[in-house]
Amino acid sequence: MPCPIVMANQLARRLMQVRQNQTLPWLSPDCTTQVGVEFEQRKPVRIHSITLIVGYQADGQVDAPAVRQRLIREVIEPVFASGSLKPDAHTVIHINPRGVFVRNGPAAHSGMTGRKTTSDSYGGYARHSGSALSGKDPCRIDRVAAYAARHAARNVVAAGLADECEVQLSYTIDQARPVSVQVSTHGTGIVEEAVIQARMEAAFDFRLGAIIRDFDLRHLPGQYKGGFYRHLPVHGHQGISFAELPWEKSDRIDRLR
Questions:
Q1: Residues 78 and 181 placed together within one structural domain of the fold
Q2: Which CATH number belongs to the domain containing residue 50 in this structure?
Q3: Which residue segment(s) compose the domain that 166 sits in?
Q4: Which of 5-14, 127-136, 242-251 has the weakest average pLDDT?
Q5: Are residues 99 and 176 in the same domain?
Q6: Are 101 and 152 members of one domain?
Q7: Is the pLDDT of residue 243 over 60?
Q8: If pLDDT is split at 50, 70 and 90, which confidence band does 104 have?
Q9: Contact between 76 and 70 (Cβ < 8 Å)
Q10: How confident is the model at residue 42 (pLDDT cuts 50, 70, 90)?
Q11: I want to staple 53 with a disulfide (CB 3.0 to 4.6 A). Which of 13, 32, 137, 189 is the partner?
Q12: Does 153 share its domain with 105?
């Protein structure tokens, strides 16, 4: 996963933890995180900026300077304490840059369905479909194909065929299989992209019914407390989430080599 979205998700999880364990009881559940990372030759080299937009109870318990100080100490510093990439003296930290964020939650927003495709997937690092992942059942191909593409790309990298892999699946009405499968390794592949594509199509079944079957998408809700699909918009549809997601498994390595 691209490190900017991983770091942003870690910050979001930490915000949830400090609110739930009463470390920062005045926090609202309505919080937004963003991490800006500088890259050189597609490798992350430093953290340019960190942004937290948090709702809180502006009732005299805390003021803006205290909010900033507590969030840096209780959220930002713990998240980056053990990471190899850390904020430096020049990292810009934005906390509620437009002022107090008092009006938040459903009373101030019209909803999230269809609005979180970037944060649900790879941030701004990788391309993704314009279709939302959240708010759809597992029979919608524009949702589950994103999981299938992630699964395939992850296995290509795990098999050592490339350092980076981006997979595009294109479907059309009345066709079970994708009409187009495209692979891009951004110049990091050890074999030609056409070879990777051919091996991928032999190793994975990208039909809708096969994806639902292979990921057990119909039965996952019964295996997790509080359901399965409702957790994904909170913790992220890709990468390390609240559970071992079926599309995060490296289980087709031998078939790709």
A1: no
A2: 3.30.300.10
A3: 141-256
A4: 127-136
A5: no
A6: no
A7: yes
A8: low
A9: no
A10: confident
A11: 32
A12: no
Instruction: Identify whether residues 173 and 233 lie together within a single domain.
Output: yes
Angle 133-134-136 from CA coordinates, rounded to 5°: 90
pLDDT at 134 over 90: no
| pTM for this prediction | 0.77
In a domain, 131, yes or no: no
Task: Count up the domains in the chain and report the number.
Answer: 2
Q: Which residue has the higher pLDDT, 156 or 129?
A: 156
Identify whether residues 84 and 183 lie together within a single domain: no
74-92 pLDDT, tens digit each: 999 999 998 889 999 999 9
145 and 246 belong to one structural domain: yes
